[in-house]
Amino acid sequence: MSATPSSGVTPRRRPASPPMGRARYFLVLVLVAIGMLLLAGRIVTLHVLDRPFLQGQGNARILRTEPLSAHRGMITDRHGEPLAISTPVVTLWANPQEVPEDRIQRLMLAQALETPLETLDARLERYAEHEFMYLRRQLTPQAAQRVLDLRLAGVYAQHEYKRYYPAGEVAAQLIGVTNVDDRGQEGLELAYQPFLAGTPGQRRVVKDRRGQLVRDLEVLREAEPGGELTLAIDQRLQYMAYRELKAAVAEHGADGGIVVMLDARTGEVLAMANQPSYNPNNRAGLDPQGLRNRAIVDVFEPGSVMKPLAMSALLETGEFPPGTVVDTAPGWMVIDRFTIKDIRNYGELNLAEILEKSSNIGMSKLTLQLDDPVVPERYRALGFDRVPGTGFPGEASGSVPAPVRWSSSQWAALSYGYGLSVSALQLASAYTAIANHGERLPPSLLRVDQAPPGEPVIDPQVADRILAMMDQAVEPESGARRAQVPGYSVAGKTGTVRKTGGAGYQENAYRSLFVGIAPVSEPRIVTVVMIDHPRGDDYFGGAVAAPVFSRVVGSALRLLDVPPDQRERP
């Protein structure tokens, strides 16, 4: 008998997987694997093969290289007092294509710029096809921040420097000015532009699409600040000289004036004042006439202030001993159909009296006794035919006529200061030879630590003799008595020169001059004063220029702590 199962239940079998389902599964796996391989390949391509290109494209959109402005060097006087300094400012500019056209935003921008809305709209319309326009130049950081706080699209800031001149109009022509880009345009700002400007730097930054700074990455090159320029002038003396010059020009209704003060021991320019002047901090309505540094770039016929220099050449010939007397009667003489005159008939004059009375007749007769052109040669030796060498832009060279076919009248005219042209700085430099026993010192606009070697141009004994004659010319009874300085001895010479016009010498137009040295016992300063075309009855150098010299030099000697040389004059 066969065995049978205990129950009638038959066990179920697992159904077999359909062939198509298994295929789809493997297909998905393959596709995922391929996708992952492609993704990995793309990642490798982006991070390895295309990395330089993509990084460059990204950097081109967000990385910027910006300039770092170099701080312009300061200009100071000899004691370190600032005469020109740079202050940080912000320039606002815009991309007109990005500035929003919303009227409310435009109005807010115009108000922050303190500009009428119509003006702003007109400018944006004019530059609509450009990507750059200035909104405002050289704003204070506070004023610029009010605009930037609006966070308007297309408005950007650039950090710069602006020049400020603490002395204002007092030393404007000497120091000069910079333009809106902080580059020297006039005076010493122009002469020393490379030295003062420094070298700009560069930095790399990250900016967003609106041009706003996101992050400061690195400094590529540090900005190198400009050098500090130390001038020879003393700001105290400069203020005082300018004040007195301005007052004299106003008092006499003159066209202008010049004061030049040199250190008699070093040739340094302690003060150089000009009239008319201008305010370099506010150039609105600027008169171009005020820009010229007349003391250096203008030349003029000097007149009688040349007589001591001409006399030095005459004395060196040995032809005129101390007892020489010249008969100047009747106070006029005719040479080559030209009439030479003195103010009045002085009769017989010795050499010192010729200078004291400023006799044209006396100088002419002495000069015409010689066959050699010693006077023009002396003028050339003193530098009147070449530039002073200060480096100031446009400095004048003056002129001394060449001794070719000179007439007797031309020869005589040179002895009393006509027929040549000089600048005020040249004149002051020439007189340092008389103050320094015959050695002329080159003028310097910069402070010098050690006196330069002098140029021997006059015999020392003759120079000392001329100084004594000039001292006598400032006696209480002389025409230069108003140049006296209480407590100090003064040597000087006046000059009154006819101005020239289109038709020759003018009848009622003069230049009034005075050149002086003080104190005589130990010369400390040489000063030239020139007043251009004083109007009124007083136009002589002794009446117009000499009082300015007295006030300027008196104050200067006290400020410089020069002890009085114990000479008492009534």
Q: What's the multimeric state?
A: single chain
Number of helices: 18
CATH class of the largest domain: Alpha Beta
Strand count: 19
What CATH calls the topology of the largest domain is Beta-lactamase
Instruction: Estimate the helix proportion, in percent.
Output: 25-40%
Main sheet makeup: 5 strands, mixed
Number of domains: 2
- The separation of the N and C termini measures 176 Å
For this structure, what is the CATH homologous superfamily of the largest domain? DD-peptidase/beta-lactamase superfamily
Mean pLDDT: 88
Question: How much strand content do the residues show?
Answer: 15-25%
Q: Please state the structural category.
A: alpha+beta
Shape: elongated
Radius of gyration, whole Å: 41 Å
CATH architecture grouping of the largest domain: 3-Layer(aba) Sandwich
- Uncertain segments are 1-5
Explain how this protein is built.
The protein is of the alpha+beta class. It has two domains: 66-203 and 215-230, Penicillin-binding protein 2a (Domain 2) (Alpha-Beta Complex), CATH 3.90.1310; 235-280 and 293-559, Beta-lactamase. The chain is built from 18 helices and 19 strands. Strand 2 and strand 3 form a beta hairpin. It is elongated. The model is unreliable at 1-5 (pLDDT under 50).
